[in-house]
Amino acid sequence: MGCLTELFVALSLVVVAVYVWFYHSYNYWYKKDVPYLEPSFPFGNVYKSFAGKQSLPLVISDAYRQFKGKAFGGMYILIQPILVTVDPDFIRDVLVKDFAIFHDRGIKVDEKEPLGKHLFLLGGNKWRRLRVKLTPTFTSGKMKMMFPDDGGLRPGDGAGAAGRGGRRAGGGAARGGGALRHRRHRQRRLSASRWTASATPTTRSGSGGRRVFQANAAATINFLIRAIHPKLLTILRVRNNATAVSEYFRAMVRDTVEHREQNNVTRNDFMQLLIQLKNKGCVDSDKGGSHTEGEEDDAWRLSIDDIAAQAFVFFIAGFETSSSTVSFALHELAFNPDIQARVQEEIDAVLKENKGEVTYEAVNNMHYLDKVVAETLRKYPPAPALSRESNAEYQLPGSGAILDKGTQVFIPVYGLHHDPEYFPDPERFDPERFSEEQKAQRHPYVYLPFGEGPRICIGMRFGLLQTKVGLTHILSKYNIEPCEKTVRHLSFVPRAFVLTPTGGIQLKLSSRKNV
């Protein structure tokens, strides 16, 4: 009995100590005289996220709406204080003007994790050095070079088997679908997903990519540990990427590089550019051109693991964001037939001028399609929130408060994109929001589908190109309509890393008879 009493007392003391620790932490924003949301023990302000009711980016966007009228506000992820930006001028400062202080995302990298050393996660000088190396691989010239002669589709692919005969086509983020089968071939052709003749890229690359986006308990635990203290991930040896995913991508890259180098194979794709960075330290057309490097950078070469990490994040971007944007665009066009008819009219006219060929120049001449894609990215931004971390103390604008070094700052992209002050009637799908006249009337930092500043998404051009090519092929051949399973107003998977529609997107594709 005495042992049980002692155990009870010990546990009680631990609980009290933890509560006091949390309570003390929850005074952080109060002491700084920063407006904040009242936290609740032990989840802070993100109970909905941990309970699987709402994704963290949407929780942050809800906070944005509550802070509206202020420049910023504070909240808590468990005990970790985070700052939510509201004022577009402050957002500009974080992303551009004061980039020297906010150049890192605040996501700690485990140096022992091979796939963790990619451009999205790295910070400081390691990020700068890699960015200098990779920037020349995403110029408009490189995009044109990588653009396939056949427009990205194999004969017979069309919009996929699900589209034939006017049947229902299922698409969705991280799931794939009949209407979106084209993207897998484009990834194999344009990205790092190249295989030897004996491999089966569609099956293996699809299943490997899906593992990255599976929203499960392990991902939640990972996030929980990071919120308590990022260094615990390293101490407890918790990896961001599952071992199977890591081994899959490393083996894929190793086999691909060996096959090309041993057989003297050269292709116009992203992998070939990475191989050049491995062997030469620069891409061919930039040596001696406008892209200059210091002696230290010039001597640095990408390792196989460096290539695998870049291929990994490039595959994620191609696998998820472009296919999601195509899916969301088709969903909106199905409910806006007048907009669909107008974009199809433009596609038909441009393709007629180009003898029916989907060329790089043709796609870039589809200006109304540009607006459709831009409006899709507004309603469904690939990154619903951006994160930055202060690497020094920072005076908050219009306030006497000092932001401590190491504080994480979130930019609520989804909240900005759905703010009626900047986008009236934000749930309405209206591509004309992106006419030159309307864009000129808006603050440039309220539309951030790819981020902004020096850390703007390096693959933005490629992502937009891939999305437009996919939509061009589908809309030139098919009309998109709702079916009996189509949901007008989408809800999103709570634990997904990006906006993922619950149950996917179900649409009906019917052949256009007169084209």
UniProtKB/TrEMBL annotation:
<dbReference type="GO" id="GO:0005506">
    <property type="term" value="F:iron ion binding"/>
</dbReference>
<feature type="compositionally biased region" description="Gly residues">
    <location>
        <begin position="154"/>
        <end position="179"/>
    </location>
</feature>
<dbReference type="Pfam" id="PF00067">
    <property type="entry name" value="p450"/>
</dbReference>
<keyword id="KW-0479">Metal-binding</keyword>
<keyword id="KW-1133">Transmembrane helix</keyword>
<feature type="region of interest" description="Disordered">
    <location>
        <begin position="154"/>
        <end position="209"/>
    </location>
</feature>
<keyword id="KW-0408">Iron</keyword>
<feature type="compositionally biased region" description="Basic residues">
    <location>
        <begin position="180"/>
        <end position="191"/>
    </location>
</feature>
<dbReference type="GO" id="GO:0004497">
    <property type="term" value="F:monooxygenase activity"/>
</dbReference>
<dbReference type="GO" id="GO:0016705">
    <property type="term" value="F:oxidoreductase activity, acting on paired donors, with incorporation or reduction of molecular oxygen"/>
</dbReference>
<feature type="compositionally biased region" description="Polar residues">
    <location>
        <begin position="195"/>
        <end position="205"/>
    </location>
</feature>
<dbReference type="InterPro" id="IPR002401">
    <property type="entry name" value="Cyt_P450_E_grp-I"/>
</dbReference>
<keyword id="KW-0492">Microsome</keyword>
<keyword id="KW-0349">Heme</keyword>
<keyword id="KW-0812">Transmembrane</keyword>
<keyword id="KW-0560">Oxidoreductase</keyword>
<feature type="transmembrane region" description="Helical">
    <location>
        <begin position="7"/>
        <end position="26"/>
    </location>
</feature>
<protein>
    <submittedName>
        <fullName>CYP450</fullName>
    </submittedName>
</protein>
<keyword id="KW-0503">Monooxygenase</keyword>
<keyword id="KW-0472">Membrane</keyword>
<dbReference type="GO" id="GO:0020037">
    <property type="term" value="F:heme binding"/>
</dbReference>
<comment type="similarity">
    <text>Belongs to the cytochrome P450 family.</text>
</comment>
<feature type="binding site" description="axial binding residue">
    <location>
        <position position="457"/>
    </location>
    <ligand>
        <name>heme</name>
    </ligand>
</feature>
<dbReference type="InterPro" id="IPR001128">
    <property type="entry name" value="Cyt_P450"/>
</dbReference>
<dbReference type="GO" id="GO:0005789">
    <property type="term" value="C:endoplasmic reticulum membrane"/>
</dbReference>
<dbReference type="InterPro" id="IPR017972">
    <property type="entry name" value="Cyt_P450_CS"/>
</dbReference>
<dbReference type="InterPro" id="IPR036396">
    <property type="entry name" value="Cyt_P450_sf"/>
</dbReference>
<dbReference type="InterPro" id="IPR050476">
    <property type="entry name" value="Insect_CytP450_Detox"/>
</dbReference>
<keyword id="KW-0256">Endoplasmic reticulum</keyword>
